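User: Hey, quick favor. My workstation is busy. Could you predict this chain's structure for me?
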Amino acid sequence: MNVTDNLSRRPVTIIGVDPGKSCGMATLTDGRLSYVFQGPAPTMLDSLRTQVARAQGAVTVACERYVVHPKRYMHQPDTLEVIGAVKLICGDLGVDLVLQYARDAKKLASNDRLRDLGMFVGLDEVNTPDADDVRDAVRPALLRLALDHTAIYERLLSHSRSPA
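Assistant: No problem, here it is.
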């Protein structure tokens, strides 16, 4: 049992971020999806500040970690710049930031799992050609919830449409 799950029962807010040229952001409040965004980085960064300012209780930002590998040709400077900006915002606002590998978050939260939990974000919710970035933002938020707020995560699983 985690200390924060019982400590005067303050709300738990986890903001997931998928960085890049097109970004995704998803806010979980006590295990419920309360806000989603997909779009350009500057708008997402403004939304991040707003979401942190509105949050009550414990706030954590869970951002996808990106590592440059010299042997890979794919280099994403936008991703690195967004991660840097997220770090600055979290530091300015005194919010915990956790960087996580996408593969770990995807292991925990496949598209099927997102559907089971009622957190599969559709195109109509973000008004974009796809909702991949926002779904990829939900995943690190769920991973952080599972690791840091086990009781809330287990309660969420107990209400899912299929067993874990």
